[in-house]
Task: inverse folding
């Protein structure tokens, strides 16, 4: 099976979540009030700039699901969301494999967790460019927009935009 990446990738870190309550699993932590606002704002900014992924794949963690729903509301109510358990606590290779196995989509958004979302960006555009774009680390509700290089032999993807709430 041949793998190929989409021509545009959106890497979205989930918005700000609250701390786990006693007895609550990390997986079940929802967005807090600030996180709901962040998710809505970054999704609206993306829609205003015409960023419309053909496919959205999100971690099944509650905070990622809630972030994905904000994207759907802002961009397209009919946008199909796919939820993948493997994105929760996954190494970067899992994120990259999901990207490369979805090349049939012209554009793909991954909604996931740090530090893996930041590591995926670094692997795709290079550590120096990633550090220049996000010197303080990948913020909650941060959205990287990456385009595939014109030359198949080019070293890195190109960072087109980075949105924050």
Result:
């Amino acid at each position: 099976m041949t793998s190929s990446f989409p021509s545009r990738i959106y890497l979205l870190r989930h918005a700000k979540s609250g701390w786990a309550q006693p007895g609550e699993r990390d997986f079940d932590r929802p967005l807090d009030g600030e996180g709901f606002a962040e998710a809505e704002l970054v999704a609206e900014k993306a829609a205003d700039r015409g960023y419309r992924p053909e496919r959205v794949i999100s971690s099944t963690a509650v905070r990622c699901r809630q972030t994905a729903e904000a994207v759907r509301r802002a961009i397209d109510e009919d946008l199909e969301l796919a939820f993948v358990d493997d994105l929760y606590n996954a190494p970067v290779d899992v994120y990259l494999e999901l990207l490369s196995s979805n090349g049939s989509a012209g554009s793909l958004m991954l909604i996931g967790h740090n530090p893996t979302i930041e590591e995926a960006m670094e692997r795709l555009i290079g550590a120096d460019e990633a550090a220049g774009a996000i010197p303080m680390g990948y913020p909650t509700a941060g959205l990287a927009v990456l385009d595939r290089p014109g030359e198949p032999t080019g070293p890195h993807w190109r960072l087109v935009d980075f949105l924050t709430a």
